[in-house]
């Protein structure tokens, strides 16, 4: 990857965040490592997909990226500046989120116009009313909805409101946390189209968090896959979908259901054992469920390494003669 | 009609609300052959869950349900009474729901929740019931089932809970299993496992399966036949391969086109979304409910009744412009 | 029934209120009593504290001994009973309102803080709630009156400082369920201050719940005021309070029972009205009845 002089829009380095929990009365406090050693760079104008299942640390990573949660370790830089050094006003004008559940992401007792205008109102904007009208139009909502309450709108309309609210301050980065997961298929396509057109109109940098690989594939330039708090694989979208390296990524891809009856039942490349975020792992965190597991996986600490176009946290990925191993691509760098 | 596990004609469900009567299901015909899987697919508010709940007779009392014909597991239940339906429930028909966490009682052991129904219905002894519970847990892939009977739901993961729900549904050895979005609350890798389990159980036990979902990927992987529901009616019905290869209803076409497919849909291209939103179902609805969002719509589409066509054996489509759409 | 589409999920509170008999009856009664209290100087035929020892213990109008000027008779000091009852409504409602303002402000603030921040803040406030619940109100009031003397202000202060627990418990629970909603994260992401999030965003979501608690507590306070006044710990004579009137009528209970029956009925009616109203409100604002 060649890097120009301008810093990436988002740079996370070595992020770790753990929660201390009392799981049982009188039991000692347990530590849940939500995110461990997470590094991610997103260039200006790029869309990066962040993929993983529940409990993989996506939401924690989003909160840290937004500057709402302080990591135990590691740095977050937005547009070349440490997020802790930004004032609230600067931060808010740089980075904004859109959340999954449009029912819960809008305060039900506020009217649409005041919801959309609120960021501007809080940050000393003028002409709030005119701006709100412009945003309503931009996200394809009729002006008459300005006086409605969120409860009177459909899920898709509410998601449009959330997007308008996130964009009214003209931020440079949009963090989309599963923005289409709660929507119906036909509405999901509308929202994806809207995000695509707004992205090119505003030159937005986007992080798109989702468990839906098909949607991520459609939107993202690059994809990072997370498992139990760690990034296990990162690759340009095509490379990831054509030749996933990490066994977990392969399992995810195999489990993704396509609207095509010829593909039949999804292949299961993952053990039935559930992921346990409380367990301590000497080696690979995915080893207990991995189909390609080897003796050494349970004991060897896994680190990210380059493999073809990807960066993979798996010591056995790319080994020749492995069952189900994808053909390693000619390695560009070491 | 001996091999019909479920045969329903003109099912209507209406619910009184404070803004008028909500006609949630407006004349649905459904049939499932023995040992087959029918997927009822549609978006939220289309009435698919209400249809399922009406079939198993679990709708609240204020909902008004009427049918012209209602036969299940070889019994005519058109003049259905609460008592007769209750008898069917848990024996010939069982249902599993979307969220296994809220359908299992957290204060009772797994064993108790599995056995309670059959002990009453079939007058099994505790020992017999436990033996069957162990058999069913083993069948759904719960390791070491005998030891787990005394555990409480919180000791299980989401995927395991859904397996337990399936075991619980199987306790009465039903012939028809109704599954309402059984994998929607689960992670994709777990979803694949549960679908494979349902598929396996169905062929091993000769179950008929009515699976309700909004996910066309789920439909493609498990269905024999598909019924696409829109605004309380079946818009199209077809064998699964036919439906995905050559959808005949404009709504089905729109749905299929709106899903991005990795490797096929060009990255970042505009998806052909269906414009607009689902119509409200309070009060009467005239003509085709989809016409406001349909690119084929013309004047005739506002007329009643919307004609049904059978473009091929086993297929059905309800559309004024079926000929034009097919061309 | 998640499938039923929400078309307009906000059929006005007004419309629902009109459809609920409890709210209708309770509300009308309550409005009537409030109106009487406000218009007391206009409505009362006599000065409520003017004594006329020549016309002591006159019976109400249904007795043959009754006098037309004193529709509901007079008490042992010859004060017009109807006027005292009318002015008594002022005391009951005034104390109710005053106490609720104090206790509501304390309880809602503490509950919001505990529910929103959780952790140590929650532990501390929960401990305060438990401590408060272990204090017997009448005994504490007794001690306070002994220190500060019986007066309306003391009464309102003491009750206000004691009765915030229910507000705290309810708002704490509501804040706990709201704080994990995505809109709170969204508000933090647009840089909204904590005070704004707590009082301008979360609090309005609890309007209905708080309204119900207010109605329950008002009824509670009115009864407590009467009880404390009856014990001589509340309103000081000659100010007319229904509790005090019952207390003063005690000596003549055998011969002139109306002295107790009339303020007692007034008290019953007011509490009934408030409770009917509150119960009805809870019904229509709670989860939809099926």
Would you give an account of this structure?
The complex is a heterotrimer of chains A (334), B (327) and C (290). With 334 residues, chain A is α/β, with parallel strands linked by helices. Chain A has helices at residues 58-65, 88-94, 112-122, 128-138, 155-167, 185-202, 213-219, 237-242, 247-255, and strands at 10-21, 30-42, 47-51, 73-78, 81-82, 95-98, 173-177, 205-210, 222-227, 230-236, 305-307, 310-312. Chain A is 27% helix and 22% strand. Chain A has an eight-stranded mixed beta sheet with strand order 6-7-8-3-9-10-12-11, sandwiched between helices. Chain A has a four-stranded antiparallel beta sheet with strand order 2-1-4-5, covered by helices on one side. In chain A, a hairpin with a 2-residue loop joins strand 11 and strand 12 (310-312). Residues 321-334 of chain A have low confidence and may be disordered. Chain B has helices at residues 48-56, 82-88, 100-103, 110-121, 126-139, 145-148, 158-170, 188-205, 216-222, 240-245, 250-258, 322-326; strands at residues 4-17, 20-33, 37-41, 64-66, 69-72, 75-76, 93-96, 176-180, 208-213, 225-230, 233-239, 308-309, 316-318. Chain B is globular. In chain B, the strands form two sheets. Chain B has an eight-stranded mixed beta sheet with strand order 7-8-9-3-10-11-13-12, sandwiched between helices. In chain B, strands 1, 2, 4, 5 and 6 form a five-stranded antiparallel beta sheet that branches. In chain B, 48% of the residues are buried. The model of chain B has no long low-confidence stretch (mean pLDDT 88). Chain B folds into two domains: 4-92 and 174-265 and 274-326, 3-Layer(aba) Sandwich (Rossmann fold); 93-173, no CATH class. In chain B, helix 4 runs parallel beside helix 7. The longest helix of chain B is centred in the middle third of the chain and has 18 residues, at 188-205. By secondary structure, chain C is mainly α. Chain C has one domain (82-285): MetI-like fold, CATH 1.10.3720.10. Chain C is built from 13 helices and no strands. Chain C has helices at 13-18, 21-38, 40-43, 81-117, 119-133, 137-148, 152-162, 165-179, 182-189, 194-202, 207-230, 242-249, 258-285. The longest helix of chain C has 37 residues, at 81-117. Chains in contact: A-B, A-C, B-C. At the A-B interface, helix 5, helix 6, helix 7 and helix 9 of A face helix 7, helix 8, helix 9, helix 10 and helix 11 of B.
């Amino acid at each position: 990857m060649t890097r120009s002089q301008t810093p990436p829009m988002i740079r996370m380095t070595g992020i770790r965040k753990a929660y201390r929990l009392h799981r049982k009365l009188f039991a000692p406090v347990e530590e849940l490592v939500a995110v461990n050693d997470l590094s991610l760079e997103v260039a200006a104008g790029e869309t990066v997909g962040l993929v993983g299942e529940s409990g993989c640390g996506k939401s924690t990573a989003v909160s840290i990226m937004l500057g709402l949660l302080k990591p135990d370790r590691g740095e977050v830089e937005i547009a070349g500046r440490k997020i802790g050094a930004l004032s609230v006003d600067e931060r808010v004008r740089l980075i904004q989120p859109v959340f999954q559940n449009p029912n819960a992401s809008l305060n039900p007792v506020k009217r649409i116009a005041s919801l959309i205008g609120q960021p501007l109102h809080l940050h000393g904007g003028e002409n709030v009313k005119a701006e709100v009208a412009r945003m309503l139009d931009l996200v394809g909502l009729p002006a008459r909805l300005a006086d409605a309450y969120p409860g009177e709108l459909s899920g898709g309309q509410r998601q449009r409101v959330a997007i308008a609210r996130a964009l009214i301050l003209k931020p440079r980065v949009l963090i989309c946390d599963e923005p289409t997961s709660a929507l119906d298929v036909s509405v999901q396509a509308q929202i994806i189209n809207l995000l695509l057109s707004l992205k090119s109109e505003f030159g937005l940098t986007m992080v798109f968090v989702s468990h839906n690989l098909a949607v991520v594939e459609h939107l993202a330039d690059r994809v990072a896959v997370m498992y139990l708090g760690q990034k296990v694989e990162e690759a340009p979208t095509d490379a990831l979908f054509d030749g996933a390296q990490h066994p977990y990524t392969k399992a995810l891809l195999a489990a993704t259901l396509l609207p095509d009856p010829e593909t039949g039942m999804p292949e299961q490349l993952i053990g039935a054992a559930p992921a346990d975020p409380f367990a301590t792992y000497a080696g690979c965190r995915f080893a207990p469920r991995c189909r390609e597991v080897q003796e050494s996986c349970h004991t060897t600490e896994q680190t990210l390494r380059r493999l073809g176009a990807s960066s993979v946290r798996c010591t056995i990925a790319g080994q020749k003669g492995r069952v189900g191993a994808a053909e390693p691509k000619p390695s560009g760098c070491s | 009609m001996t091999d019909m596990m479920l045969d329903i004609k003109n099912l209507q469900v209406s619910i009184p609300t404070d803004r008028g009567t909500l006609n949630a299901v407006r004349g649905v015909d459904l049939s499932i052959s023995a040992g087959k899987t029918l997927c009822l697919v549609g978006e939220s508010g289309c009435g698919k869950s209400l249809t399922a709940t009406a079939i198993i007779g679990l709708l609240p009392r204020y909902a008004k349900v009427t049918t012209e014909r209602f036969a299940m597991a070889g019994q005519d239940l058109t003049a259905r009474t609460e008592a007769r339906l209750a008898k069917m429930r848990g024996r010939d028909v069982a249902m599993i729901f979307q969220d296994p966490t809220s359908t299992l009682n957290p204060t009772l052991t797994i064993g108790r929740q599995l056995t309670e129904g059959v002990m009453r219905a079939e007058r099994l002894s505790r020992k017999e019931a436990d033996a069957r519970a162990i058999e069913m847990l083993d069948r759904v892939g719960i390791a070491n089932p005998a030891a787990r009977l005394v555990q409480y739901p919180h000791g299980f993961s989401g995927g395991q809970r859904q397996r337990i729900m399936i075991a619980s549904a199987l306790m009465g050895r039903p012939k028809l299993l109704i599954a309402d979005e059984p994998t929607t609350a689960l992670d994709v890798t777990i979803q694949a496992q549960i679908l494979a389990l349902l598929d396996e159980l169905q062929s091993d036990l000769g179950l008929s399966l009515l699976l309700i979902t909004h996910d066309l990927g789920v439909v493609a992987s498990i269905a024999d036949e598909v019924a696409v529901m829109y605004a309380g009616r079946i818009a199209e019905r077809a064998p699964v391969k036919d439906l995905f290869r050559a959808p005949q209803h404009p709504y089905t076409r729109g749905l299929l086109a709106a899903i991005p497919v990795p490797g096929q849909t060009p990255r970042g291209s505009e998806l052909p979304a269906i414009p607009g939103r689902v119509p409200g179902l309070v009060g009467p609805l005239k003509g085709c409910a989809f016409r406001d969002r349909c690119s084929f719509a013309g004047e005739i589409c506002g007329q009643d009744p919307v004609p049904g066509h059978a473009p091929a054996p086993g297929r059905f489509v309800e559309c004024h412009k079926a000929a034009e759409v097919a061309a | 029934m998640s499938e039923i589409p929400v078309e307009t999920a906000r059929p006005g509170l007004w419309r629902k209120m009109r459809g609920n008999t409890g709210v209708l009856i309770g509300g009308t009664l309550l409005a009537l009593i409030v109106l009487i209290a406000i218009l007391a100087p206009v409505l009362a035929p006599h000065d409520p504290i003017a004594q006329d020892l020549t016309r002591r213990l006159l019976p109400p109008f249904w007795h043959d001994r009754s006098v037309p000027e004193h529709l509901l008779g007079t008490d042992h000091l010859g004060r017009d009973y109807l006027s005292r009852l009318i002015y008594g409504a002022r005391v009951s409602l005034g104390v109710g309102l005053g106490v609720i303002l104090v206790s509501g402000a304390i309880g809602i603030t503490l509950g919001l803080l505990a529910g929103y921040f959780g952790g140590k803040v929650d532990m501390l406030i929960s401990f305060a709630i438990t401590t408060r619940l272990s204090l017997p109100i009448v005994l504490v009031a007794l001690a306070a009156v002994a220190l500060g003397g019986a007066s309306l202000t003391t009464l309102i202060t003491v009750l206000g400082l004691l009765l915030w627990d229910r507000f705290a418990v309810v708002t704490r629970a509501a804040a706990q369920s709201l704080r994990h909603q995505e809109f709170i994260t969204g508000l933090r992401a647009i840089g909204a201050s904590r005070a704004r999030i707590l009082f301008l965003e979360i609090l309005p979501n609890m309007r209905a719940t708080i309204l119900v608690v207010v109605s329950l507590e008002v009824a509670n306070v009115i009864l407590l005021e009467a009880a404390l006044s009856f014990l001589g710990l509340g309103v000081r004579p000659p100010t007319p309070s229904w509790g005090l009137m019952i207390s003063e009528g005690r000596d003549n209970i055998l011969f002139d029972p109306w002295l107790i029956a009339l303020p007692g009925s007034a008290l019953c009616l007011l509490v009934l009205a408030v409770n009917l109203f509150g119960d009805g409100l809870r019904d229509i604002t709670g989860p939809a009845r099926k």
